């Protein structure tokens, strides 16, 4: 039976114990490792870059999902693919131009990886329309990108419903990932809005029983 995939964000893990964090994620039954890359310019926070993805690649066979919250991501998508990311997503308005965003998606696909665009909480759903035919995954932010541990914004769910409706019209199929403040108590709401992948940082890493928390979000599709 197909289920929602759970992608815990290692932003909520202990940065001194990243190898242990990804080993735990496997043991807890998570599906994907979500890596939040922030540059202090697109978002007011700094995290880590390609070297961390490369290092984690040696410790896990789980898919690595690199969420680039950086300015002009087209400069770095190739390096994240080379570092071992399996999925690379970015915020298209952070690119120099729409043309650069299309080129970045093409570069990721040509590297044999999955690509996607992310719609930040303060951006309209229409932002993603020019890219739907080229993506494997649509990321709908349910918080303003920048920090883990923020409250879920249910008003963002309707963007996914709007964009999902485009798929049958255009004969497309792409994953829909919700990112930000997701936890077992809003997972069903996310599923109803079209989620196929759920990112959860604090909900998993701060849980007293992370395996049960992961399982509670792996809802049947
Ligand atoms: C926010 C990040 C999210 C976030 C997830 O900028 O993209 O991935 O850290 O963490 P929680 O689930 O704690 O909101
Ligand atoms: Zn993220």
Q: Remind me, CATH topology?
A: TIM Barrel
CATH architecture descriptor: Alpha-Beta Barrel
Instruction: Determine and state the CATH class.
Output: Alpha Beta
Low-confidence stretches: none
- Find the CATH superfamily: Aldolase class I
- What does the main sheet amount to? 8 strands, parallel
Percent of residues in helices comes to: 25-40%
Q: Which range does the strand content fall in?
A: 15-25%
Q: Structural class, please?
A: alpha/beta
Number of strands: 8
| Total of helices | 9
Order of strands side by side in the largest beta sheet? Answer: 1-8-7-6-5-4-3-2
Taking all Cα atoms into account, the compactness measure Rg is 16 Å
User: What is the H-and-E element order?
Assistant: EHEHEHEHEEHHEHEHH
Give the overall pLDDT as a whole number: 98
Describe the structure.
With 221 residues, this protein is of the alpha/beta class. It has one domain (5-217): TIM Barrel, CATH 3.20.20. The protein contains 9 helices and 8 strands. An 8-stranded parallel beta sheet has the order 1-8-7-6-5-4-3-2. Helix 2 runs parallel beside helix 3 (77-83). The longest helix has 13 residues, at 98-110. It binds D-xylitol-5-phosphate and zinc ion. Residues 9, 34, 36, 67, 179, 199 line the site of zinc ion.
